[in-house]
Amino acid sequence: MKNLLFVGGARPVPISTVMAEQALAQARSRGIRTHVVNRPDALAGTPTVSAAADAVSAVDFVPSEQTVAWARSRARDGERFDAVFALQEMAQVAVAEVARALGAPGNEPEAVRRIRTKDLCRAALAEAGFAQPAVRLCADVRAAADFLEELSKSSKPGPWVVKPRDAMGSIGVSLVRGIADLPGAVAALPDESPFLIEEFVEGPEFSVEGVFLGGEPRILAVTAKEKAPPPFFVEVGHVLPAEISETEHDRIRDRVAAALSTLGLRTGAFHVELWLTADGPVLGEVHGRFGGDWIHTMLQHAIPDLEVFGLVFEDMLGLPGTHTSLEPTRGAAVRYLVPPPGQVTAIEGWEEVLAHPAVLHAQLLVAPGDIIKPLRQSSDRAGFVVVGADDPALARKLATELVDSVRFTVQDAPADRLPGLWSLT
């Protein structure tokens, strides 16, 4: 029996627990024994994930050296781990370090740290000749203003984007059109750590989903994404596969495959974000994991009989492949519910959405009495609908119609009831 160490398990949020449960089920169906390690509070908040694993241990995977020490101790006691895996972004470094310590398949820790640190990833790609937006690591507003002045003198008038150096879910990401916007953008960052400011790239956004098979990237689909209007960059919809020409599709695939090779990745899954500009694809963030926002559900509909997690396990463990085709033959889409901010007094039409035969998964994340915050990060979205169809155009149309059919009645809420920095102004 093969043994899989599943680092980080799940966070106590719906998409994370669903993905972890599916990964564990796909491992079990292949005769793989699973051992989940996670922080004690996360284990307590994800009991269904723990129940689906063969073994569970409380280990803090950040900092990663604690997981490495734990894994070495278990190995000395006779427990064997043939592969190491994680879904969570913050567990990827621990996975790479444990894999190297145990001699299991995996990416080099240096490569994982590079892609997880956005400015280092940009520097590595730019050095290899990939088009990249100018970026600067800044400690404060003054340093960011100096960078904007430098760019303006070099005929790069903006706008620009302020973002955390290491975060996810659109937290703290905002558009600035000039130096006067910097104080507000910096105040919206999640903490006082050094942050990034980079050029804003014009062009539609996409992501590329795939896995490594035999050390080579295998692209499963290109996904089109839709974001809320600036100044924030929250994703409100995805369509898979993207409705683009074959030429555009090939240019994206070739550029992403070359970038992954340049960055030294070779094992597991990947999710690469990019813009399609007049001069070709410009790569954004690179992740050594599956994408969020229910992209795994869309992939498994668009490619019939695909089990995305099982595909990774088969490759890492040298098991016989169970998939004959890895090309999308259907379409899927996800659309998020983004009602106006305020206090919810009524929601209508949701039961009809759940009853629709095209719905693959849907969840309402607010109820009457809850406060809806202004849309500034992914956690502010009020729910979602994932649909599957015969082609992506129909999936996109259905997802939009279903989300638009949900009617929210919202009244203004007192500003002091809105958490944190949020306000209705």
TrEMBL record:
A Pfam cross-reference name: ATP-grasp_4
Domain of life from the UniProt record: Bacteria
Organism whose genome encodes this protein: Catenulispora acidiphila (strain DSM 44928 / JCM 14897 / NBRC 102108 / NRRL B-24433 / ID139908)
GO molecular function (one): ligase activity
Organism ancestry: Bacteria, Bacillati, Actinomycetota, Actinomycetes, Catenulisporales
Gene3D superfamilies on file: 3.40.50.20, ATP-grasp fold, B domain
Statement: the UniProt record of this protein carries the keyword Amino-acid biosynthesis: no
Keywords noted in UniProt: ATP-binding, Ligase, Nucleotide-binding
Protein name as catalogued: ATP-grasp domain-containing protein
PROSITE patterns to which the protein is assigned, alphabetical: ATP_GRASP
Domain ATP-grasp: 122-317
InterPro entries, per the entry: ATP-dep_AA_Ligase, ATP-grasp, LAL_C2
